[in-house]
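Quick note —
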Amino acid sequence: MSISQSGSFAQHAFAADSVCAEVKIEIAQELTLERQAFDAHMRINNGLSNITLEDVDIDVSFSDETGNVVHASFDPNDTAALFFIKIDSMDNITNVNGSGKVDPATSADIHWLIIPAPGASNGVPQGTLYYVGATLKYTIGGEEHTTEVTPDYIFVKPMPELVLDYFLPSEVFGDDAFTDEIEPPIPYTLGVRIGNNGLGTAKQVKINSAQPKITENKQGLLIGFAIDGCEVNDVLTKNTLLADFGNIAPNKASVARWIMHCTISGKFVDFKADFSHSDELGGEQI
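Predicted structure written out below.
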């Protein structure tokens, strides 16, 4: 097995003058994160022009740095598994559980989706090393052959675990619609604390808060919100509901607050916000 962009390991089914089957398996990355899937691809080339490879059975195996077998499961509810695996696609083969066939002079491609379970990194910031290999079994004319595909490695790093706490007053005070006098608005604070309870760094964390809704406006009066200031970790930023927290290290927290006012007094009844962060492998987690 080869894990990396440097190529794949090819192993002949048996050491004869002609090659019966050539097996290639590769994982196109050397690093993954807990709960983030990666693709494992196996190609079986049947080099025989008139013989079918039958009863194809493939067992993908996992082991740790010391060679101990690591439990992987096709059952997403298996709480003992460190890796979850499922077949993502198959071309030129319909089964790899003992009844698959590879026609003569044909290549079969199998893709597995593999997901490291939470805790698979063992909390090691630089990642925990695992080996991924496979055993291929098939028959030719009723005779069974077995190929052990050489394992290669992959590192699993910990994921961040973000917890958000919002702080918002239940009432805001501005002009009282039931009096003739126009009362000035009283500023209030909308605050948020983001804690990273995981062992991985959350990168490029951003929060895009929605405008709060206000009730007790039966007269249909015009209500307006305004942002008077915004701070992230006590540093003034742009007056916008989009707050950029940057990176949040493991077991650390960041805070932001928006100083706002409302033209009419009332009570908050609903509030929604979205947050996102980028992981080390690229892309955005929402």
